[in-house]
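Forwarding the complex inputs:
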Amino acid sequence: MSTTVPPPAAAPPEHDAAAVPALSLRGVSRVFGSHTALDTVDLEVATGEVHCVLGENGAGKSTLCNIVFGSLPPSGGDVLLDGAPFAPASPADALARGVAMVHQHFSLVPTLTVEENLLLGRGVRRLRPDRRGLARRLAEIDESLGLRVDLSARAASLSVGARQRVEIVKALLERPRLLLLDEPTGVLGPDEIDGLLATCRRVAESGTAVVLVTHKLAEVMRVGDRATVLRGGRVVGGGSLAREGAVGLTASDLVELMVGRDTATLDPVLAANVGVLGDRPGDDASGPGRGPAAGEGAAAAGRRAADEPVLAVRGLVVVGDDGARRVDGVDLDVRPGEIVGIAGVEGNGQGEIVAALSGAVHPAAGKVLLAGVDITRAAPRRRTGLGLGVVPEDRHHEAVVAGLSVSTNLLLGRLHRFRRFGLLDRGAMRAAAGDLAHRFDVRAASLDAPLSSLSGGNQQKAVLARELSLDPLRCVVAAQPTRGLDLGAVDAVVGHLRAAAAAGTGVLVVSSELSELLALCHRVHVAYRGALSEPVPTSAPDARDRVAHLMTGARA
Amino acid sequence: MTVPVPATAPAPAPDLPRPAPGREPARPARTARDRLLDARPVLVPLAAVVGALAVSTALAVLAGAAPVEAATALWEGMVGTPYAVGSSLNVAAVLLLVATGFLVAHRAGLVNVGGEGQICVGAVAATAVGTSLPDAVPAVVALPLLLVTAAVGGAAWASVAGWLAVRRGVSEVITTLLLNFVGAAVLVLSVHEEALLRQPVTSSETLPQSAPLVDATHLPLLGLPGSPATVAIVLALAGAAVAALVLRRTATGVRLSAVGLSRPASLRLGLPVDRLRFTSLTTAGAAAGLAGGVLVASAPHVLDDGLASGYGFSGLVVGLLARGSFLAATGIATALGFLVSGGINLQLAAGVPASITQILESLVILGVAGTTIWAVRRTPRAARRPRTRSDTEATS
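Prediction (whole assembly, two chains):
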C-alpha cells in the first residue's frame, strides 16, 4: 500500500479559462452557532464532469449540498452558476435555475404510481397533468441515458435501486445543468451501485455537471473526473483523479486527505469503511480477508469450534404484518469469542432477525437459545438479564431516549441499583455514568445534557457503553453499528466489539457494508429473501467473491 | 480551483468539526431586536393574555356592563372579601388535583381528557360512602375512607381507558373523552333514582340530589375567619408536591419520562412499558376522582348533577398550560380559581353572564396555545441568525 504523500498536484484547471464552470463556490462559509460547518470553501465544477465531493461524516458535505440546492443560505462567500451569481432562496428556486438534487433519503410518495410521482413536480401551474409531455421527455431520457422506469408501478412496491432510478429520472426531467447526488449509494446493493455509477457517467457525458457526494472511495475512483476533499468543513485537497490510467490522485492519496493520516496505519475495517480496500480484486496480499483480526480469528474460531454456541437460532420464522414470511427458517450459531456477520442487501430479513433476537417481535416458529436457555418468547428485560446486549439499527428510534440526559440513557435499564430511601441517588448515578463514559470515550459537554446534543458517533458509543457493560455479558447483537459514523467513531465501535469478542463474548454483526464485515468477522452469513446462507469463513481467499455472489441470490 | 493543501494534519478528526483557531467568524453584536426576540417565550403568552382580556372586556361591554363596574365586580369576586378568597382557593384546589393527575399521565405520553367523567364517578363513589356510614364512625376514619373511595372510583373509571390503550392500542384521548359522557350520565342516573343515591322523595319539590353526607365526612375548614376555604387546598398542594417529587427524583419518574419520550427504546431496555402507562393513566383518574370526592365533601355536602361543571376540562387546561411544571400548574390553577369565583360575582353584581369568564379562559388558552409557534419558531429566512448545535445534527 502506498505511503507516499500525493504529489502536490498544483494542477491548473484543465478546463481552460474560456469555459465558464457550471458551478463555482468562492469562499463559501456556513456557521451554525459556534460551530463552523463550512469554512471558506472553494469549489469549481465544470460542465460534463463528474465531480466528487469526499469527506467523512461531519465534514460538511451535506451542508454544501444544502447551500447549492437552496435549503440553507451561506453565512458568507459567493456561489456562481454558469458564471452568474446564484443565491437560491429555496429548493424550488434552485430547480428553476437548473439545479437538481437526489437526496440521501428518497422523496417519493409511496402510495402514488411512478407516473404520478413524476407528474407531481411538473405542471404545478397547469390544470391538467401533462402526461404526454412527460412521456416525451421520458423517451428522450431513455434514449440518451438508457434510464427506463415503470410508470404504472406503485412507488412503494419498487426495489430500492428502482426507486432511486425514479429519483434520478425525476431530477433529470427539467434538463438540469447541475445534478447533485448526496450519498446515493448508501442503501444500494453491489449491482445497483454499478448501475448508478454508469448512469452518473452517462449523465455527465450528456453535458450536465454532476456532483457526487460520498464517503466511499471505491465509487469515486470508478466514476470521478475530479475530486474535492473536505475535512472539518475545509477543503483539504483535491484535483484530477488517477482514473483509467490518467495521472492524478490515487485512492490512498484521497484517504490520507480525508482522515489526515497514512493509509498504512488504518485498521482494515476503517479502510473498508472508506472503500480503499474494497475495490481491489486480485490484490490478495492486502485483501480484506487478511486483516489481522481475521487471521487471529480463524485460529480462535478453530479453537472454539467445539464450544457450545452462546447464541443458537433454530428454524426461526418471522411473519410480517402482511402475512409474508420475512424470516424463513433461519439457523445460526454464535460461539463465545466469535464474531459472526450477516451480510446482504437491506430488506432481506436481517432487520427482522435482529428484532426477533432483541424481543421486539415474536417469531412465528423456531427457537432462540441464549447460553442454552430458551428465550424465544422472553421479554427484553429477561434477555438483558441473561446477558444479551443489543445495539439496534435505528439509533434514534429504538436505542436511546434522545430527550433524556446522557447519564440517564446510560443507566436507564438498571435504575433500580441507584435507589436510596426510595429516591434516585443522583450522585451514584453520575459517578457510574461518568465511569462508563470514560471507559467508552463518550464525549459530552455534560452528562446531564440531553443525549440528542451528542454527535452521532458519541451517541453510538453511549449505546455500546450501555450494552457492553451488562453483567453478565454473553452475547452482543449489533445491527448496522457503524452506519452514519465518522471514522473515529467507527474505529471506537469496531474496537469495542473486538474487545468484547476477545473477552469471550459472542458477537453478531448485521451490516450492509460487505467490506467491513469481511474485515471484522470470522464468518459471514448472507441474508437473501429471509433465508441465511451457509457461513463463509472470511479467511478463505475467495471470501469476498463468494459473499458477493450469495448476495445476488445465487446458492453457494 | 481546488488544489491540494499540504496536509498539516492534526489529530484524527474529532466528532464535530471544530472551527479552525483564530478563524471564528465575528458574531454580530446583540441588538435590542435580538433581546426582544430572546424574550419571546415570556412576551408572547403575556400578549395573548392581554389580548384575551381586551376581547372579554369588549364582550362584557356589549353585554351591557360599564367596563369599570364590571372590572370592579370581577375584582371584588376574586379577592374582595375573605369569602371570595376562600371559595377561589377551593376551586383552585380542585383544578390543581385534576392538573396533577394530568401531568403524571402526560409524563408517560398519555393525554387524559377524562377528568370530567372521573370527577363524576369519584363523586358518586364518595357519596355512596358518605351517605351510608353510620353517625358513630369518627371523622379520622370516615373522611379518609370517603376520599380513598373517591380516588378508587376515578381510578377505576380511568382504568377502562388505560386497559384499552395498553391492550388494544386505542387512543386514550378518544376513550377518556367519551367516558366523560358516560361518567356524567352515571352521576345523573344516581341522583335521579331513589334506589341509588337520590334523597328520599317526600314531595314534588324534592330536588334530584343525594341526601346530605354525614357530618364526619365533611372536609374541615382551614379556620380562617369568614372564609369557606377547606383543607382541600392543602391536600392538593401536598399531592402536587408528592407527584413532583416522584416524577423528578425517583426511578419510576425517570422511567415514565422514558416511556413518554420513546416507547420503542423503553421496550428495548426492558422497562415495563404497559404497566407504566396503565398506572400513570389510572393515577390521573385517581387524582380526578379525589377532586370529585373533595367537591361532595365540601359545602353543601350533597351530590347533584351540576357537580363537575367543567372542572375536569379546566384542570386539563391547567395541566396543558403548565407544560410539565407542577409549580406552573399551582400558579395557573390558583389564577383560574380566582377567575372562576370572580366570574360568579360578575354575574351577581354587574349582571354580566358568568360565561364571560369561560370565554376569557378559552381565549387565554387559544391565545397561548396558538401563539406558542411564534415563541419558539425560527425567525424568517432573511433574518435567521446562525443557529445552534442541535440544528446541525441533521446536516453534515
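The first helix of chain A runs from residue 61 to 68.
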